[in-house]
Specification:
single chain, 289 residues, alpha+beta, Putative xylanase fold, eight-stranded antiparallel β-sheet
């Protein structure tokens, strides 16, 4: 469960960061290596991609990340402050989706410079497009979809595909406070996250049940964003990626926890999801031009 793994913030990375801080060594969220790799990748795409539909650009950009190692917890390397973390050399399922989307949007706009990358990253990752602290990060993926729909970046099409109400209360983070370094000793942040969860629970959240996924294959497009729902209590989405169509089949392009890299699933989407007993269905967001 990639997002569940991503939600487990007590990690060796955090311990190393704390150790470095204690001896006076700090590293910026976009260190020189990551910035160099990002700039290089921004300049690596053929200019002709700009003329393709956004979903086709996403397919090409996503495939360019194939083989990139799966690395969890990169957004929480700085537990005492909320930084705009930039890391394209190690991705989890959400940061893969974010980066493939950002690069594609930059290619379409023709603004493939590092400053615009940082602006797009903040726009997509944070509520209202503004990093105003830990609780402004879009931790829950249905909240990520909701907020980016408000920005005109994506459209949640789950209901249009025949989705049904998910019928569960979302409170995983506050009910697992000890799993989150930022929440453990910060009552103000806990209150803010309670408010975030209350706002999520005030909405209608739709999903396509597992057994119905193959029936909507013909309505899905390459580049559609897929969030995989879960039976885990309090959690909305456990994994995410993009629809990838090839040879009449429908696959998932994603950063795989199991195989530790970005890849296209070997089996079709419904079969892939059936491979994990805690995965219950999908939500779908279509990226807008």
């Amino acid at each position: 469960m990639n997002l569940l793994n991503r939600h487990s913030l007590i990690s060796a990375i955090v311990l190393i960061s704390i150790t470095l801080l204690s001896i006076g060594i700090t590293a910026g969220p976009a260190d020189d290596y990551e910035e160099m790799k990002c700039r290089k990748k921004l300049n690596s795409f053929d200019a002709s991609l700009k003329d393709l539909p956004i979903n086709e650009v996403i397919a090409e950009v996503g495939k360019s990340f194939t083989g990139t190692p799966y690395v969890a917890g990169t957004l929480d390397e700085y537990p005492n402050t909320e930084e705009l973390v930039i890391n394209i050399t190690g991705l989890d399922c959400v940061t893969f989706v974010e980066n493939a989307l950002i690069f594609s949007r930059l290619i379409k706009s023709g603004k493939t410079d590092f400053d615009n990358y940082k602006k797009e990253l903040e726009l997509i990752r944070y509520r209202g497009g503004k990093n105003s602290g830990y609780s402004s990060r879009l931790h829950y993926f249905t909240d990520w979809i909701y907020d980016n729909e408000k920005k005109g970046i994506v459209k949640d099409i789950t209901s249009d595909l025949g989705g049904v109400n998910i019928g569960k209360n979302i409170d995983f983070m506050t009910s697992h406070r000890n799993s989150y370094k930022q929440l453990q000793d910060n009552n103000n942040l806990m209150e803010e996250m309670h408010e975030v969860e209350n706002n999520i629970n005030s909405r209608e959240i739709y999903y396509i049940p597992l057994e119905n996924i193959s029936s909507v294959y013909d309505k899905l497009r390459t580049g559609d964003i897929v969030g995989i729902t879960t039976s885990i209590g309090g959690l909305d989405i456990a994994h995410t990626g993009f629809v990838y169509k090839e040879g009449g089949n429908t696959y998932l392009m994603h950063a795989s926890l199991k195989n530790k890299k970005v890849e296209i699933s070997a089996s079709e989407l419904q079969d892939y999801i059936m491979g994990n007993s805690k995965q219950t269905g999908i939500v779908v967001a279509r990226v807008l031009e």
